[in-house]
Amino acid sequence: PRSRSRGSLEKFLAAPEDAASELNPVLQLPKGVRQGYALLPPLLKALSDQGARTWDSEVPRLQPDSRALRFMKKLYKMSATKEGIPKAHKGHLYNTVRLFTPFLECRHHHRDLVKGDAHSVDLLFNLDRVTALEHLLKSVLLYSFDTSVPISSSVTFICHLSIKEHDFSSQVCPSISHSLAFSLHFGVRKRKWVEIDVTSFLQPLIATNRRNIHMAVNFTCLMGDPQRSTKPENPVNVTLVPPSLLLYLNDTSEQAYHGWNLLRHGRKSPVWTGQRNSPLVDPMGDKKKGNSKGKRASR
Amino acid sequence: QRRNENPKAAPATSPYNLSEYFKQFVFPQNECQLHNFRLSFSQLKWDKWIIAPHRYSPQYCQGDCPRVMGHRYGSPVHTMVQNLIYEKLDPSVPKPSCVPAEYSPLSVLTIEPDGSIVYKEYEDMIATKCTCR
Question: With an 8 Å Cβ cutoff, is A255 touching chain B?
Answer without folding.
Answer: yes
